[in-house]
Amino acid sequence: MAGSAAVKMSAEEIEAEIQRVELETKTLALERAKEENEQWKARKAEKAKRNAVTQSDLAADRRKEHAKTVGCRHRQGGFQDSFPKKGKGDPCISAHKMPFGELRLQCNRCQLEVYEPNPSQRNVKGYRDKHGRTWDEQKEVYDKMLEFWEEGGLHMSEGPQFTALTAEGIPFRPALV
Ligand SMILES: [Zn+2]
Q1: Is the pTM of this model over 0.85?
Q2: Which residues have C-beta under 5 Å from ligand 1, the single-atom ion?
C-alpha cells in the first residue's frame, strides 16, 4: 500500500503547508495592521499639531481684535487714530438683522462685533461665540452694544428673512455657532 502511504504523506504535507501559509498570512496581516496603526497614529498626531497651531492662531487673532476694542467708547468724534478711541459724540454702532432674525451689532470705529445670543444655546457645554466669548460674556457685550445702538439711532440693515420651523411647525431660531 505504498501508494496510499504516499497519498497520506502528501495529505500531511499539504496540511503542514496550509498551516505554514496560514501562519505566514496571519503574520503578514499582523505586520500590515501594525504598520497601518503606526501611520494612523502619525496622521492623528500631525492633525492634532495642525489643530493646535490653528487654535493658537485664532486665539492670537482674537487677542489682537480684542486689543483694538479695549478703551473704545464706541462713539463718534475724537481723533481718527487715537487710542483708546475717545469719541464723545453719538454712539457709532450699526445693526444688521441676520436671516433668522438675530441682530449683529458692530462698532464702526473699533470693529467690535457681537451677535445676539441664542437663548437655546445658553446651557450648551463649552459654548463660545466666534470671538471666544462664553454665552454670558456674549450677552453682556450684546446688551451694552444694543443700548448704544438704540441711543445712536443708526438704521438697521437687513437681508432676506427666513423662518425656521420644527417638524411640528413651531418656529425656532437655529443656532449660528
Ligand atoms: Zn468701538
Answers
A1: no
A2: 72, 74, 107, 109-110, 112
